Structure formats: C-alpha cells, structure tokens
UniProtKB/TrEMBL annotation:
This is UvrABC system protein C. Residues 249-476 form the UvrC family homology region profile domain. SMART domains: GIYc, HhH1. Belongs to the UvrC family. Keywords: Cytoplasm, DNA damage, DNA excision, DNA repair, Excision nuclease, SOS response.
C-alpha cells in the first residue's frame, strides 16, 4: 500500500518514514521532496534489497520543508541522531573524546573538560585520546594558574568561596575582590600552555620536585613526578586548535552491516593522535562511500572542523557537505581523495589501521565477551544484587494435555550447559492446565536441588506470561526460596517481573544484548521441551490400542495421534472425523471406529 503523497511539496526538506506502529524507520533529505519520495514507490528493479525491505514497511510519511538543501542536510543529521532510525547508517557508539574548554566569552573564564564542542565563542583544545593524561594536566593547571572550574555564577556582591579556594585550587573571583586583569593574565598563560608552550611549566615542576626530594618530602615529590609524567604524556599527543597545515584523515572498511572507521589527526604536518569509531546499518550490507558521508555529517556536528579532510573514496554530495562544513567553521573546507605524495601514504596507513581494527574487533567479540555484556545489562535492568551467571529456563510442552513434559535448561555465564538440562514428565496434572504444570515442574526441580544441596540459580526464566510466572512464584514461595524470577512473553517479547510488583513489565529494544540472551534461553527451553515431548509421544505410540487394527501401521498411527492428541479423543470421533487425517480411507476409518467403540463398551461393562 502506497502512502498518500499528494501533500508532499516540490521543495527542499527532510522526510520521515514510519512503520505501522508509528516508529520512525528512516530519515532522508532531498532538494525536491516529492520527486525523492516518489522514487521509492516506482519500479523496484533498480532498488537495493535494503530499499525494497524498507518500502514494504512504510505506512506513513511526514516531511519538514527547509529553505535550502544545506538546511535539509543539517536537519537530517540532527533527526538521525535523535531518533536513530533502523534503516539509517549511524554511529554505533557515538563516543566522544574529551576537549579542554576555556570560556573566554565570560568575565572570569572557566577551564574544564567537555565531550561536546559547541559553536560558541569559547576556546577548545582537543580532542584528546588519553583522558587520564588530560585530567592530570587540568589538576596541574588548577594548582599553577588557580582558574575556576565550577559553574557558579560570578556576580557583583561578595559571596562565600567554596572549598577549591581553601585548598588553593582557585583564585575565587566570586569573592568580588579579584583583580580582573591579573585573572585574565593567568587565563592567557594557561591558553599558551594548552597551545603547546609547556617548557617553562615543566622546568618549574621539575625544580619543585627536586626541592621536595631534597627536603625528604618523598610523597609530595612523587605527586609532582606524576604531574610531570601526565604533562609529558599530554604534550606528546597535544592537539591545538586547527590552523595552517591541519587536516583529518578518515578511512573506512566494511564487514557486512558494520563499518569500522579510523581518524588520524594531523596538526602542523605531524600526526598527533587517532581515534576509531563503528557504524552499523541494520538494513544489511553498506556501501563505504555512503557510510563515510553519513559519518562526516554526524561526527562534525560537534567536533572541530579542520580546513582539509582526506578520504579514500569520492563522497556522494561532496560539494554540499563541504559547503555545510565551511559554513560551520567560517572558512573553506576541502574534502579530497589523495592520489600521490605524502597525503596518499598517510591515507594508506589510515586504511590499514581501519582494517586492523576490524580484524581485532572480530577476534575479540567472541561468545564469552558478548555474553558478559548481556549479563551486565541484565543485572542493571532487573536491579539484581549480583551478576546472573547461573540462569535456568522452564517451558511446558503437551498436545491436548497428553504426554505433558516440562523442560529445564541451564545457562552458565551466558552459555548453555547442555549436560545439566533436565526433563520432567508431568505426574499430578490431568487435562490442559499449563499453570499447574509449571508449578509442578518448578516445585520438583528446586525440591530436589534443596535435598541434594546443589547450587541454586541466580535467575529463573519462565516461558510464558503472568499466569505461568505466578504459578512458578507460588512454588518458590512454598519452598521458602527467594530467587529472582521473570517471564518472557512470546508475542511482544515483554519481560514479566513479579519480583518487582504484580503486573509490572519491562520492555527492552530488540537490539538489547540482555533481551537477546533471554530470548535465546527461552527458545532453548522451548526446543528442549518439544524434543522431550516428541520423544515421549513416540514411545507411547510404540504400544497403542491402534496396533491391533488391520491396515493401521506406524505411519498412520503417528498421523492419527498428532491429529487427535490421544486414543481417548479418537473414541469420540466419527468415521468422517477420522477420514480428515491424511491416508485414512473410509474403510480404515470404519474399522478404527468399530474397534475403539467395542473396546470402550467392554471397558464400561467391566467397570
């Protein structure tokens, strides 16, 4: 079904595609909204598999008109960051490396760490890849220059200074007796230091360390030594504000839906740092040039923009993106593919580093690491006291209440422990009563563990909704056990948590590692229950009243049991009902009906 496109204008803007649940699944921009949106619903012959899947899920389209295509590009990047649509290529981690911010736009400037670079009038230094070194250096700056780092408003009128003043970490301009000229002189000294003029400060610190050592104040000398070490470490990867000869080199390699990116920071002709990022496309494999363009639009929203960016492929919309970056930085910005000289060499090195990062990520993210991530998330989501390393999952399998089986699967550290799986044939419940069956299995499982003094699980997972969970909880209460218990309802994958209160439900996104682990345990419990039930039913089929009926072999017997559930149910069936089963002719149906009716009458007379 094609959404109504009649109201979409022929103007620049952004379109938001929604599915039947109203969730935004894709955000795009266009110089002509109507032409771009219509192209999705024309012939699919030239569309990628991802686009065809996307179009099938579109239920509604909203749009926002902008004045220019650059405005649309900015709005698109902001909306992708806000809504994180499933079919847009987006930053997976969106991590930010720290900057040092000096608020020279304030009367008494502050100096502090931030992970967002805003387009304001403050000075920014960074990003720094060694956050420990820059934090240590800020401590040095606090001691040497006594600049304020707090958010306190400095207004006219004397106020009481905070602890930083008393421990000699701040000049406390809030006292209203601060010399503004002296304060600004210290600010400029700190700025010169952050720009790389560290020789004077290092010399002063070394003299201070030697003085402490000579007076046998070894603890104080060691503290200054650590400050010198942090300062030298920071100086080695110092990244000043962008200037002449500054550039970023960005390389990307793809592995299916995941793109691994590497950024080299070149400042004044030398590489002074590097960072890596990961992007993911939930719709499937991704084209690297498109991913690079998407990354640049998202990354440089709040990161310093150099005058030159080197990439390994020509980007779609290169001129548009360059124009937007130029507007943000206030100068011309070039995005280029190097083909020769030193720029090509540094680009090739960046590509090799991206490929290495991809290989390392693929090696490191094994089952154990993925499970640990899921278990930690599960602990936080369920507010558990400890990591749920031992999880047991329960399920019930039966057909019309016959041959009912309860399964118990055990996961240790997020991985299945097959040797500890257990099957329980239902003994006390007659007919179809899944709640009572669940209560029986849970009771028998933990009665035995208590008797044998075996280890109890950190978490119990029930395949089912509030009814099954409540039945399991009643068995635990009867045994005096207080084990965290949850259920996982199949239809919406909601987590039922009676331990948090009746009827409370936790809803996690389908991409959640914790939810994926719970679904895996639930599915494994279901698989094991069904397998156990089939095995028990097959054993029953080997000895049946049907064996004595001519023309009913093992194949027909299996089909009859699968259709009716039990011989008892067949006794009340007419020949016409029996003929509904594949392979049962009219003659065979009459034979089965006559035989089972005779058996029933004999049993009744004998009673």
């Amino acid at each position: 079904m094609v959404p109504d496109l009649s109201k979409i204008p022929d103007s620049p803007g952004v379109y938001l595609m929604k599915d039947s649940s109203g969730d935004i699944i894709y955000v795009g921009k266009a110089i002509s909204l109507i032409k771009r949106v219509r192209s999705y619903f024309q012939s699919s012959a030239n569309q990628t598999p991802k686009t065809r899947v996307l179009v099938r899920q579109i239920d509604d389209i909203e749009f926002i008109v902008t004045d220019t295509e650059i405005d649309a590009l900015v709005l698109e990047a902001n909306l992708i960051k806000k809504y994180r649509p499933r079919y847009n290529v987006r930053l997976k981690d969106d991590k930010r490396y720290p900057y040092v911010k000096v608020t020279i736009n304030e009367k008494f400037p502050r100096i502090f760490l931030t992970r967002r670079r805003l387009m304001d009038d403050a000075l920014y230094f960074g990003p720094y890849t060694n956050s420990r070194a820059i934090r240590s250096t800020l401590e040095v700056i606090s001691k040497m220059f006594l600049l304020r780092r707090c958010k306190k408003q400095v207004t006219s009128g004397k106020t009481r200074p905070c602890l930083n003043y008393h421990i000699k970490r701040c000049m406390a301009p809030c006292r209203d007796s601060m010399d503004l000229e002296e304060y600004n002189r210290r600010v400029m000294e700190a700025v010169r230091f952050l720009k790389g003029d560290t020789a004077g400060l290092l010399k002063e610190l070394e003299e201070k360390m030697n003085t402490f050592a000579a007076s046998q104040e070894y603890e104080a000398a060691a503290e200054v030594r650590d400050q010198i070490g942090g300062l030298k470490c920071l100086t080695e990867q110092q990244i000043a504000t962008s200037g002449i000869g500054d550039r970023d080199v960005i390389a990307a390699v793809a592995d299916g839906p995941t793109v691994y990116l590497q950024i080299f920071y070149i400042r004044h002709g030398s590489m002074v740092g590097k960072v890596d990022f990961t992007m993911v496309d939930s719709g499937g494999s991704v084209e690297v040039p498109s991913a690079l363009a998407a990354f640049i639009k998202q990354y440089y929203q709040d990161s310093p923009i150099p005058p030159e960016i080197l990439v390994q492929y020509e980007l779609p919309e290169n001129e548009l993106i360059s124009g937007w970056l130029g507007q943000r930085s206030g100068r011309e910005v070039k995005i280029q593919v190097p083909f020769r000289t030193e720029k090509k060499k540094i680009m090739d090195m960046c590509v090799r580093n991206a490929e290495m990062a991809m290989r390392v990520a693929k090696m490191e993210k094994g089952p154990a690491e993925s499970s640990l991530i899921a278990l930690n998330e599960l602990k936080d989501v369920l507010s558990l006291e400890k990591l749920p390393k031992h999880i047991e999952g329960f399920d019930i399998s039966n057909i019309s209440g016959t041959n009912a089986v309860g399964s118990v699967v055990v996961f240790e550290s997020g991985l299945p422990a097959n040797s500890r799986y257990r099957q329980h044939n239902i003994r006390t419940v007659r007919g179809i009563d899944d709640f009572a069956m669940m209560a029986e299995v849970v009771n028998r499982r933990y009665s035995r563990l208590l008797k044998e003094k075996d280890s109890l699980p950190d978490l119990i997972l029930i395949d089912g909704g509030p009814g099954q969970v409540g039945a399991a909880k009643s068995s635990l209460d009867a045994l005096g056990l207080d084990i965290p218990l949850i259920g996982l309802a199949k239809r919406f994958e909601h987590i039922i948590t009676p331990c948090k209160g009746p009827g409370e439900v936790i809803i996690l996104p389908l991409t959640s590692p914790a939810l994926k682990l719970l679904m895996r345990i639930r599915d494994e419990a279901h698989r094991f229950a069904v397998t156990s039930h089939r095995r028990r039913r097959s054993a029953t089929l080997t000895h049946s009243q049907l064996d004595a009926i001519p023309g009913v072999g093992p194949g027909k017997k299996k089909l009859l049991i699968e259709h009716f559930g039990s011989v008892e149910n067949m006794k009340s069936a007419s020949p016409e009902d029996l003929m509904q089963v594949k392979g049962i002719s009219k003659k065979i149906a009459e034979l089965i009906h006559e035989y089972l009716c005779d058996k029933s009458s004999v049993k009744a007379d004998g009673g």
